[in-house]
Design goal:
A hairpin with a 2-residue loop joins β1 and β2. Helices cover 12% and strands 47% of the residues. It has a 6-stranded antiparallel β-barrel. The chain starts with a helix and ends in a 9-residue tail after the last strand. The protein has a single domain, classed as Lipopolysaccharide (LPS) transport protein A like domain (lipopolysaccharide transport protein A fold), CATH 2.60.450.10. The longest helix is centred in the N-terminal third of the chain and has 22 residues. It has 190 residues and is mainly β. The chain is built from 1 helix and 14 strands; from the N terminus they run αββββββββββββββ. It holds the Pfam family LptC. GO terms for molecular function: lipopolysaccharide transmembrane transporter activity. This is LPS export ABC transporter periplasmic protein LptC. InterPro entries: LipoPS_assembly_LptC-rel, LptC.
Length: 190
């Protein structure tokens, strides 16, 4: 009889422990789907990336650090310590981009460079600004910051205090609130 009472007490104890653990559930499992996915999934140090199309070089990129965020809602790549890049078009001298920071959102075709941005096109014209965006799909560049364009002739300078909208080679552009220096030929034609 004592053994039956003891067995019942043990079963009752186990039952109470079991019931108490079930009733004290942890709600943290409900938030698993809401966890932050915006973290670095891959880091590349002292990167030198060459991208080619068939036998032609398209991009020659150098960066001290590349960080990829492939699990973010919209995946992107950052160059937090700067970017130094040559880009090529068949039969033309390479263009060049240098900036202290860059961000690439490949799925949308949206690129950003900021802090000491220098962009040199294949004609050797130089654009300097603090921040610029490239819309890859429409092949356009944009900025709302002060933009300075120094033409290869060494004489022509364009300055825009409120940005630029341009083709990606900045040969056809619209400056906002601009000023500049243009060459002038003062010889009279007879």
């Amino acid at each position: 009889m004592k053994s039956k009472v003891r067995l019942i007490k043990i079963i009752a104890f186990i039952y109470l422990v079991f019931c108490s653990t079930i009733s004290c559930s942890d709600d943290s499992t409900e938030n698993l789907g809401k966890k932050n996915k915006n973290f670095v999934s891959r880091k590349i140090f002292n990167a030198h990336v060459v991208i080619t199309d068939s036998i032609y070089k398209v991009i020659n990129l150098r960066s001290p650090l590349i960080e990829e965020y492939e699990f973010a809602q919209t995946p992107y790549t950052e160059f937090p310590k700067g970017i130094d890049m040559d880009f090529y078009e068949k039969g033309k001298k390479p263009g060049h981009l240098k900036a202290d920071y860059a961000k690439v959102i490949e799925v949308t075709g949206w690129y950003e460079a900021r802090n000491n941005v220098v962009l040199i096109n294949s004609s050797n014209d130089t654009l300097k600004t603090n921040r610029i965006f490239w819309d890859k799909k429409n092949r356009r560049i944009f900025s709302n910051d002060t933009v300075k364009i120094y033409r290869a002739d060494g004489i022509t300078t364009n300055i825009s205090e409120h940005g630029i909208e341009s083709t990606e080679d900045f040969k056809n552009y619209k400056l906002k609130k601009n000023k500049g220096t243009l060459p002038y030929n003062n010889e009279l034609k007879k």
